[in-house]
Amino acid sequence: MAFERAHQDFLQLYNTTAHQGLLKEKFTPPIPLEVLGEARGRLYTPDELARKFSRALFPRTTNRYGCVTLHSYHFYVEEGLPKTQVLLWVYGNALRAMFDNVVLAEYHCRYDLRDRKVKDIRDGSFPPTRFASTQGSLLSRNPQESLVLYRPKPVMHQARLPFPAQQLWLFERVETA
To answer: Which residues, 6 or more positions from 134, have their beta carbon under 8 angstroms from its beta carbon?
Structure first.
């Protein structure tokens, strides 16, 4: 409740204070509330918000090396959290791995809304966290060195039907004089 009140106080202060950007653009008066009028954003219920964002939330469990798999992509999250459930969150072009409200890893990704699948993951970054392995890592990881493996699912082959025996061509020998 206190946090909500502080947020409302911030919005009131922000919307009624002159802003440098509006002064430079010579808006008169340079107060956001007066510039925007009574325009309001869309209000969503918590259930609606959960439904809209749940499509891009994927709980996964790390393996003993701190890696997870999402839509055939296998990638590193955090070595200090082996066999731990983390939350993968796709928002825009970012894929974030989260645990206990801490970002463990962030990758650039392409998410297909129609298929509801990640189509590309690359360029991982790994901010320092309190979950880092006490042993440390032999090699530091940076976006250029992060390794993402793509493991396509094996295609199930239909039972092959035997080919019908092909009739061989018969040639007729023609005598020439």
So the answer is: 80
